[in-house]
Design brief:
The complex is a heterodimer of chains A (261) and B (301). With 261 residues, chain A is mainly alpha-helical. Chain A has one domain. Chain B is built from eleven helices and 14 strands. In chain B, helix 8 crosses helix 11. The radius of gyration of chain B is 22 Å and the shape is globular. The chains are: A mainly alpha (261), B alpha/beta (301). At the A-B interface, helix 1 and helix 4 of A face helix 2 and helix 3 of B.
């Protein structure tokens, strides 16, 4: 239907949706932080020290630094993705929280944007935790440049939050999300340079990798960790914004079709 | 308060709402009745501007819908058919969070909460989690939540479905108070006693079309004989064939019961005394009889 395809109209009314999620999160903040952050930290430190001791420098940096930069992008991607998949789905489908909100003077545009903004916030939290480890272990080249990772983290959250909302819109159940992880998230983790440089891949896979959003995220984050300005900043920022925006717009159309009938 | 003209909505080939006209005055309690699938819930969603009609116009509290639905929803409180209280929040937090969706400030909500808790009879449960509440308490909280922004008009979609009799009476009591306070109420239900009890006027919908509209008593008087004798038991078939036609104004067999509609119940019960094997129940006719007469007795799924 045409009205489902109407472009988003954003308003400040998304704030109470964000706030609702924040207040719920605050109640369980400590276990939530531990649960979300322990996993990437353990990977980063375990592999970084364990595997790193066997490896020479990777791309001109220690393996731990290489992996830390990849982990910033990877863990923020996961934080946003998990939020808009499992948590948003609970609110939309299981608890019917969105239905209740839509009876107030709110639109689905506001609700989805509030969810997206919340996913970005979770990404920020996750990114800051990894950054703290990077700072603590002195894994950076230039402290001031590492601060630029903060806006990068927000962009990554926006990108993957927007994309994940599309999955949320079409999912019949929690099980469905496994497809997204198997077919999108896991391949990106392996192809986009989290654990090893993309240049180690065969040319075909390198060509695929160049189109994936996580590659753009890592191309921004890793130079900033090492202490230099990334190449082609405009392209990477545009790619992340484009994936996130396209995701949000498509997700909105699909969610309207799902709920407003 | 609510003016609807020629409202229509179709999904694919199915016309769910067909040319509906509704007019509800300020301070009135208006009932929307109909079997499952009659289009009651779709109508409410159209009135709220959540879905767009294929034809027709809606004016809610003087505001055109769906064009300015957001503004119109500021004036409406909604009690949905399925409970969708926020399970991550306590009773009090549910009210606070909901107030914020209406753009209310912290102080304005805080001032309102005690009154709402009191209205819902949940003052002692303010900090309870939603999972700890009974079905009736949840409904009362949902009703209180719908009032957080002090709306002029309330939409209630089957407000007492699934509640036990005590809990239903408490909800009715709350609704009575709202009606007395001058709120306008639009209520869908398939409980006839609920409609008879609360509604000043009601409309019966079937297959998306309005079958009849009027005050409950007037509908009963104009559409149905004043008394009903329900007859059942051994030998009903013979009695129906030999006697019923003579003593009933109109009769209908549903399952193993004969519904005998009459102006003169005495005559029917006298006739039944000659057939001691039959059992019967004599009662005044009610809205349910009107409803079943107009919408038929076939099962709707």
């Amino acid at each position: 239907m045409r009205s489902n395809l109407r472009l988003p109209r954003l308003s400040w009314r998304f704030v109470p949706v964000w706030q609702r999620n924040y207040l719920v999160w605050k109640k369980l903040a400590i276990p939530s932080i531990l649960g979300n952050l322990a996993d990437p930290m353990l990977y980063m430190l375990g592999l970084g020290f364990g595997l790193g001791s066997l490896l020479p420098d990777v791309d001109g940096m220690s393996y731990l630094t290489f992996l830390a930069a990849g982990t910033v992008a990877y863990s923020t991607m996961n934080a946003a993705t998990f939020e808009v998949l499992y948590s948003s789905f609970s609110r939309m489908h299981v608890q019917r929280t969105w239905d209740a909100i839509l009876n107030a003077p709110m639109t689905l545009d506001d609700v989805l944007f509030g969810e997206l903004a919340w996913a970005v916030s979770k990404s920020l939290l996750s990114g800051l935790a990894i950054l703290t480890v990077i700072w603590g272990l002195g894994l950076y080249g230039n402290f001031w440049l590492t601060l630029a990772i903060i806006p990068v983290v927000l962009l990554i959250g926006f990108c993957f939050g927007g994309m994940g909302l599309v999955m949320n819109a079409v999912s019949p159940s929690y099980d469905f999300f496994l497809y997204y992880f198997t077919l999108a998230i896991t391949p990106m983790v392996l192809l986009c340079g989290v654990f090893f440089p993309v240049s180690q891949l065969p040319p075909v896979l390198q060509a695929v990798s160049a189109w994936l959003p996580l590659t753009h995220a890592i191309d921004l984050a890793r130079p900033l960790v090492v202490g230099r300005l990334p190449d082609a900043i405009g392209l990477h920022v545009f790619a992340l914004l484009a994936y996130g925006t396209a995701g949000y717009v498509v997700a909105l159309a699909l969610t309207r079709k799902r709920l407003l009938r | 308060m609510l003016n609807v003209r020629g409202l229509s909505k179709r999904y694919g080939d199915t016309e769910v709402v067909r040319g509906l006209d509704l007019h509800v005055q300020r301070g009135e309690c208006f009932g929307l009745l109909g079997p499952n699938g009659a289009g009651k819930t779709t109508t409410l969603r159209l009135l709220l501007g959540l879905i767009e009609p294929d034809a027709g116009s809606i004016e809610l509290a003087g505001i055109p819908v769906p064009a300015r639905a957001r503004e119109a929803r500021m004036r409406v409180g909604v009690v949905p058919q399925m409970d969708n209280l926020d399970p991550d929040f306590s009773v009090r937090e549910n009210l606070i969070a909901y107030g914020r969706y209406f753009g209310m400030g912290r102080a304005a909500i805080a001032a309102r909460v005690p009154e709402l808790l009191d209205f819902a009879g949940l003052a002692s449960k303010a900090d309870a989690q939603i999972a700890q509440l009974s079905g009736g308490m949840k409904r009362r909280l949902t009703l209180a939540r719908a009032l957080v922004h002090d709306p002029e008009i309330l939409f209630l979609d089957e407000p007492t479905t699934g509640l036990d009799p005590q809990a239903r009476h408490l909800i009715w009591q709350g609704l009575r108070r709202l009606i007395n306070a001058g709120k306008t109420i639009v209520l869908t239900t398939h409980f006839m006693d609920e409609a008879e009890r609360l509604a000043d006027r009601l409309a019966i919908l079937d297959h998306g079309r309005m079958v009849v509209e009027g005050a409950p008593r007037a509908l009963i008087e104009s559409h149905i004989e004043p008394a009903v004798v329900e007859v059942y038991g051994e030998g009903l078939a013979d009695w129906t064939r030999d006697v019923a036609g003579g003593v009933c104004r109109r009769s209908e067999i549903v399952g193993e019961t004969l519904f005998c509609y009459t102006d003169d119940a005495q005559r029917v019960t006298d006739a039944l005394k000659q057939a001691p094997a039959l059992r019967y129940l004599h009662r005044p006719s009610n809205l349910e009889d009107v409803f079943l007469k107009l919408t038929g007795r076939d099962l709707r799924d």
